Structure formats: structure tokens, C-alpha cells
Amino acid sequence: MGPKELIHLGGVINNTVFYCFNTPGQIAIANSLDQIHHKDYSVRTDANGTKVDQSFVEDTQFFFESTRDYITEALNEMALPMKPLKAQGGYFIMADISECEPLIPDVYKDSHDYEDSDTKDPVNKYRLDMPDGRVPLDLAFCRWMAVEHGVAMMPNSFFYAVNSPTTSDKFVRLAICKDRVSTEKCVQRMKDIKV
Q1: Alpha carbon distance 193, 195 (integer Å)
Q2: Does 20 score more than 90 pLDDT?
């Protein structure tokens, strides 16, 4: 918040720092990259109880893979009919939510204005529609999960080009890069959903 001319200039500067990084910052990042393979970053205990020294890269890979496997196993076991797709890399896993459609209240599927306007101010929303004019299933699902179950996910339909012939609204993204405690809370909330 502030004067329009400062906010505009701040936005211009903020947008350019991603590709116009200063020279001292570039050198600092380059020097830190030399350290990411050193084995003194962390120590974990493997399945046999042996201590394993890990580099930053190994620690991050282990964290992402173990979180991916934990969420995938949990989704496969819970009553909520989400079908995870096996991910080989990245910060997210995808899950097919097409079998969840009957569980989503119509208020999320029928309109972008799903809030009770008598009790609170409406949230400013991204009003994406499918080519046939309906609210995307994945967006309705994500809104239902966030509002009624306290679990945030990302609708995959947000990532298709406008008028793409391959647009789908059957998948959501679940982060595997969040801390384990938050991930376990979200998984438990999904397990608690009555189907």
C-alpha cells in the first residue's frame, strides 16, 4: 500500500530482480552452489539405524522423495477417491479427482460466487471457466477442500493455454516441498473427510 507512483515503480523493480540480479549476488549464489554437494549438510539415520552424512542435494532429494511417497501412499489408502500419479521429479504430485465430483457441493461447481454474501465480504477470485462455460471441476474441488476442510491444493486447469485443445479439469497439484508436520496435518484432514 502506498502512493500509486511508488507502487508502480516498486512493481517494475520487483519484476526485474528475477532476471537482472546484481553482480555481488550472482557471485554469492555461484559460491554457495560450490557447497551443495559437500557431505556435511545434514545427518540422517537410514532404515538400518546407520548415520548417513548428506549433501544439500541429497538431503533435498530424500525429503522430496519421502514426502512424495508418503502422500502417494496416503492417497491410495484413504476413502477420498483421489488417484495419485507417480511423479519422478518436481515440487508437486498430480492427483486425478474425477471420482470426487459427487462429493463436491454444488455451490462450488455452479458459480465462482460460492460464499454466503450475508456473513462476509466476498473474496476476489480468479474466474476461470472451461470452454463450455462451467466452473472447472478441479477449481471447484480445490475451493471445497480449502474452505470446508482446510487443505490447500492447486487446480491444474490454471496451467493450460487459453483455448488449448488438451485442457483438462480432472487433476490437482499437491505440494511435496512443504514441511512434514504441515503435510501430515493436511493428509489427516483428507483422511477425516466422510465419503
Answers
A1: 6
A2: no
